[in-house]
Amino acid sequence: MKSHKNTLKLISAAAIALGAEMTAHAGFTVFEASGNTPVDLTPTRDAFRTAIGGGTTAGANGSFGGERREINWDGVPAVFSDSAAFPANFFNTNSPRGVVLSTPGSGFLVSANAGGATPELFGFPADFQSFSAQKLFTAVNSNITDVGFFEPGTAVPATTSAFGVFFTDAENAGSTLLEFFDLGNNLLFSREALITANQGLSFVGGVANAGERISRVRITSGLNTIVTNGVLGNPNDDVVVMDDFIYAEPVAVPETGAAILTCLGVAGFGFMRRRARTV
Ligand SMILES: [Ca+2]
Ligand SMILES: [Ca+2]
Ligand SMILES: [Ca+2]
Question: Residue 92 C-alpha to ligand 2 middle, in angstroms?
Fold first, then answer.
């Protein structure tokens, strides 16, 4: 029992130190652009690339000493494209780039190429365009996509220092945004995408400028949802889908950090129980 108390004291000290560091490091550099054609956004994309470094390497498992990663969806095979579901772990298994997706919806779709049995652009050719031709990405039955990071090709949790995404057809303010969370699930950064005219393109990205580590990215894409090709969740709200993800190399979480965070969950629970008894 005594050793348990000592452990809690140590954890509390670690929590205080961790909290102080997080407060001091609440800064991200924003990159954003919008326009009617991909060319309008290319200089901002290039500046974001320069800021986070590295080439466009993908394919092999593991880390590459700081190589930037990009997902443009365009090489996803037809068997995993609309109308077939897109696997949430495709970019950590089939093509290991250290990203696993989740959503409160019912899954994900990558759009079909033109000329096939399934219409391109999720069946909305008058609303969407790609930044990188031809494929786009969306959650299904949800406007939320959560991006988790792993040491590429492994189950080792990782964090990154930068993330950016392209949207198309983000017409209404306040409903399309990026949010970054740290290992303790604290919100580090939030930024709305610039809105555009119908069928426009928008890019928003954030780069940690003081050592912040991003454990999860939440992408909110409009208020409407894609149900299936050509079918929206409702007739009124703004529908928005995604193209390229660009991010700094996911780096494995140090084991000591992961252990402290696990213990913090236990310590927090103990604290709540003690408080409950005094009320
Ligand atoms: Ca539209
Ligand atoms: Ca694309
Ligand atoms: Ca829209």
Answer: 18
**Rounded distance from Cα 78 to ligand 1 centre (Å):** 26
Residue 44 φ/ψ, nearest 5 degrees? -70, -40
The answer to whether 106 touches 87, Cβ cutoff 8 Å, is no
Put the strands of the sheet holding 176-181 in their side by side order.
99-102, 144-149, 216-221, 176-181, 187-192
Question: Of 177, 62, 70, which Cα lies nearest the Cα of 132?
Answer: 70
Host H or E run for residue 2? helix 2-24
- Nearest ligand for residue 129 CA: 2
Mean pLDDT of the region 63-68 = 83
Structural domains present in the chain: 27-256 (2.60.120)
Nearest ligand to the CA of 73 is: 2
Q: How many CB atoms lie within 10 A of CB 115?
A: 8
Determine the Cα angle at 95 with ends 231 and 245, to 5°.
55
Give tens-digit pLDDT for 179-201: 999 999 999 999 999 999 999 99
Residue 64 has a pLDDT of: 80
